[in-house]
């Protein structure tokens, strides 16, 4: 019954047309406000605020990367991840995935690390407006399965990304084989990536 209720929220929307919804910042901010009412500020809450800011920066970097790759008419060599052009900004697509999948901010960040890992294996991989819909969706789905206590089934991810279950199953296999099922992320690598987003003027996203 829960899945049916969640499905009803997005059945009328697609990855190309975003429904009216609360912003990522207000979504995270509301949760923090509730916690502030019952306890003093804690290191864990500071971390949550930082994660929200990191996610915003990451979304901006994705916007820049996609715009640059589109301007140079780049395409990814992984044809299975190519599709029609995403008609919303990448930042809004990140927000869509975050809101509907209910994964943590850290899960989104690890997904980008997986894309970086895939880039090292597939040199001609480019994140564009025609590939981000599938690349990012599958990367976040795999990160959620590896990291989260309650991973969402593939049919729900397919609904979020507006693709078929058969397709997302095939894309998941392709992604895993291309990264040699290497999903473990060292804390040092994660920290370095977060620091690069917070302090570096250059994007930590594959172009």
In a few lines, what is going on in this structure?
The chain has 207 residues and is mainly α. It has helices at 2-10, 24-38, 43-71, 90-101, 105-121, 132-147, 154-161, 165-178, 187-199. The longest helix has 29 residues, at 43-71.
Topology at a glance:
Blueprint lengths: L1 H9 L13 H15 L4 H29 L18 H12 L3 H17 L10 H16 L6 H8 L3 H14 L8 H13 L8
How would you describe this structure in keywords?
globular; disordered C terminus; 207 residues; mainly alpha; 0% strand; 9 helices
Largest sheet: none
Taking the alpha carbons of the first and last residues, their distance comes to: 41 Å
- Kindly report the average pLDDT value: 77
Shape: globular
Number of helices, where a helix is a run of at least 4 consecutive DSSP H or I residues: 9
Strand content: under 5%
The secondary-structure class comes to mainly alpha
Spans where pLDDT lies below 50 across 5 or more residues: 11-46, 201-207
Helix fraction bin = 55-70%
Taking all Cα atoms into account, the compactness measure Rg is: 17 Å
Q: What is the element string, with H for helices and E for strands?
A: HHHHHHHHH
Number of strands: 0
